[in-house]
Amino acid sequence: MNTTIRTRHTAGRSLAVVAAFALSAALPLTASAASAAPAAPASVQAACDVLAPGASATAEAAVRAACSQLGVWYSWGGGHGATPGASYGYYDGVDPASLHDNERKGFDCSGLSRFAYAQATGRDLLNGTADDQFHTSHASARFSAAQGSAPLLPGDLMFWGSGHIHHVAVYIGAGQMVEAYESGTHIRVTPVRTGGDYAGAVRIDGSGTVPPPPANGGTTFETWGTGVRTHSSPSVGSSVVDTFPGPDQVSVMCQEHAELVTAEGYTNDIWSRLTDGSWMTNIYIKGPASLPGIPDCGGTSTPPPSGGSKAFQTWGTAVRTHSEANVNAGVVDYFPQPTTVNVVCQAHAQTVTADGYTNDAWSRLTDGSWMTNIYIKGPAWLPGVPSC
After folding, report:
1. Which of helix, strand or coil describes residue 117?
2. What is the average per-residue pLDDT within 61-71?
3. pTM of the full predicted structure?
4. Catalytic residue selected from 60, 103, 179, 182
């Protein structure tokens, strides 16, 4: 979910993971790692503000929220934690300048725009990648690349990408924008760029009231993807109940193992029942394959640990698993909140310092991915788990 093929772009980069869900903070290597850049000089900060009239109060608030982060690090994956705000990033696997993003607390491009509009509206309207934000259902107006910046107002989001959107910036007026550009740089104000693969702009509709809490005891989750359908039963062959043109919020009552679905590079047999009685494959709900804190609907029981593995509870938010026992290895999965993992074996590998703990023990899970033992409840070396 939120998974994307990484390529190097000169216009900046947006989070695409999540991996499945792709979005959130990786583990810092050392407690002394830089968490934020020094504040930008006052002369530079003064240039970041609403520089033209005509924008809504919400859009102006979004501009000022983005400007408040001027000088903070760009960090790949930063700003995509469970709630909007600066967070530690992680190595993107491509750019050498990204090797220290796990030590930098900041934002990538879409993390910054997400934060700006969350601050302005009190709602997490833009929780997703730059591509998700370009296709948002919260758009009140759209502008083509051919229109340039002439029709834009402060707060409009500008996008770059051909086929797949890879970068977003916040227009502030007078031909200027504020952006999180790329690894190794800080959030900055810069003249707009409407050449190259500039794809156009979106005006966000931040009006309306905050959505009511989930009905009937449901739990709210964010979806991702476009054209996602809900069904009358947990099967893609059953009748369609609703269609979501872009990322949205759903209220989940329970989940169960049902029809196996493969989509967007993921395979999962778990479906969630929503408060309207319809069903959605968990592939399109942000979070691990089995949603944490959601009860079983009673259709089937959760399979026990397999292959000699042992179940453990995790703790913390925005925890990632990796392809190797190293925080700079590729991200395999992302857990926005505590969940259960099945551990096969453990090994001493990279030393990690995070949340006040230091440990070199890593656990290999049944899917072959690795997680530092720091985020698995128990002693530093898990009892009853063999060495890999």
Report:
1. helix
2. 94
3. 0.51
4. 179
